[in-house]
Every structure is written in C-alpha cells, then in structure tokens.
Amino acid sequence: MLTYTTLASGSGGNAALVSCGDTHVLLDAGISARRITAALRGLGVEPSRLRGVVVTHEHSDHVAGLATLAKQLRLPVYATCPTLDRLRPRVPFLEELGRVFEPGEGFPLGELWVDSFPTNHDAACSVGYTFTGDGGKAAVATDLGRLTPEVLRAAEGCDLLVCETNHDEERVRTGPYPYPLKERILGPWGHLSNETGAELAARAVAGGARTVILAHLSAENNTPELARAAVCRRLAELGCDPERDVRLTVAPRDEAGPSFRLERGAAVC
After folding, report:
1. Do the beta carbons of residue 32 and residue 68 sit within 8 Å?
2. Which of 33, 97, 103, 121 could form a disulfide with 126 if both were Cys (CB 3.0 to 4.6 A apart)?
3. Domain regions of the chain by residue span
4. Contacts from 112-117 at CB under 8 Å and sequence distance 24+?
5. Which of 193, 206, 202, 204 is nearest to 234 (CA)?
C-alpha cells in the first residue's frame, strides 16, 4: 500500500517519507541527516533501504541534510537540471548520484510512479510531485507562490493532498519582517496563504481527496488553528464537514507526523 509520513514541515525544515511495498523514498531532506535517520528508524525503515531522495528545490529548508545523506548512503538524487546545478557545490558525488528530469515528466521509482509538476517559487526550477502506487495517489504541493493550472491538475483525483498553508496574510502585513521579505512571502513566487491553500484543498476534496495535510506553516506568521479554520470555512462552503467527510490534519513542524496508508482510495492513519 502507499504510505505518506511527514518527518518535518515548516520554515525550519521539510522532509517526508513515501513508501509503497518495499520501496521507500525520501521527499526533500531539509533537516539534519541525524534527525532524518532517527525518524526513519523510528518508523521501522533502515536508511540504507531508501531508493533515493526526490528534491523539490534547492532552498536550505529542503536540502539541509542532503549533503551528509549523499555522502553516507550514496543515494540517487532526483531533481530538475537547474536544481542539481545549484546543489553541486554543496552535495558530494552529485555528478554520479544526480538523476535529471524535466518539470512535468514522470518516472518509475521501485513500486512507485512519480510525476512532477512546475511550481511558482523563487528557486532555480522548483517542482511539486505526485506519488502513485498500489491504487493510491498522494499529491504534495508546497512552496507555491500561486495556484497554477499545473498545480490544480496535479491535485485532481488524489486521495491525499499535502497542501501549503504557510501564512496568515494579516500577520505578515502587520508583523516585524522587513518590507522586502513581506513582499517575497506575499508575492507570486513566495508561499500560499491560508485562504489560497484552502482553495487548493477545496478543489482536491471536490475531486475526491479524503485526506488533507496542511503543511509548511510559518512559525512567525501562522498557527495550526488559523490554518485549519481557514480550510474548514472553505470546505463548509462546499457542504463538506471536515470532522466527518474529510480527514484534515496539520503536519508538525519539528517532528514526525502520523503515517497515512492509502487503501482503496481512503487514507487510514
């Protein structure tokens, strides 16, 4: 069965484990290698069993542990060519370990099929991913400056959506960040607000998703309560009861979350 587990999610670091059968794939490595390997072992997965690391983009909160993991485990690193170019000065053995694809391309990875889609973010060539295996589909859509047709198509028909709800807009505008940083966060190449993330969640639920994980919350500009409330309001407008019809959860910032197993289109925690 297809299983998704968040290892960390937030401005301080992002990583997740995607599994199907004997295939285990790391999505991003934005926390230390020590934390990643400890989290994997806590889930019963030896790090040496990983089939590779699938990277969304080169920002440090997504690749901070990648150099050490590559050195220790010699893991294949899947990313777009511009992303790999940015990573080469930091990650050893990347000429040997890098696996290149174009945004929008898909590829097999053990028992998983991985599809990519381009995202609006201020990185060299950022992408999001969908993972399909054993009849289940998980879509991971974070670090999005705005919703694009490619993002919305990726979320269509997914059973589980990992959905960015990075910030509350009012908190950003009235908070202590310098003006250029506020503009970056709120701009078309930054991050999704709670309200825009709620729209993505609503589109996915309308298309059949029954589990939504709210992710990449800012520690300074958001709270789990604010993010959840925004999504609940939008789902209620669809006539959906988040307490009954959908499993809605917030990914922990600094620790592993629950594992979601996709069985016949439903996610079981």
Report:
1. yes
2. 121
3. 2-268
4. 112/2, 112/18, 112/20, 112/23, 112/25, 114/25, 114/54, 114/78, 115/154, 116/80, 117/150, 117/151, 117/153, 117/154
5. 202
Which one, of 152, 99, 149, 145, lies nearest residue 126 by Cα? 145
- Per residue of the chain (269 residues), what is the pLDDT tens digit? 999 999 999 989 999 999 999 999 999 999 999 999 999 999 999 999 999 999 999 999 999 999 999 999 999 999 999 999 999 999 999 999 999 999 999 999 999 999 999 999 999 999 999 999 999 999 999 999 999 999 999 999 999 999 999 999 999 999 999 999 999 999 999 999 999 999 999 999 999 999 999 999 999 999 999 999 999 999 999 999 888 999 999 999 999 999 999 965 456 65
Q: Which two tokens stand for residue 268?
A: 């079981």
Would the CA dihedral through 64, 67, 70, 75 be positive or negative? positive
Q: Tell me, what amino acid is at 114?
A: V
Q: What is the pTM of this model?
A: 0.95
Instruction: Return left, alpha or beta for 267; rule: phi > 0 is left, psi -120 to 50 is alpha, else beta.
Output: beta
The CA distance from 59 to 178, in Å, is: 20
Confirm if 80 and 114 have CB atoms less than 8 A apart: no
Pick 2-268's CATH classification: 3.40.50.720, 3.30.540.10, 3.30.450.20, 3.60.15.10: 3.60.15.10
**What does DSSP say about strands 136-141 and 127-133: parallel, antiparallel, or unpaired?**
antiparallel
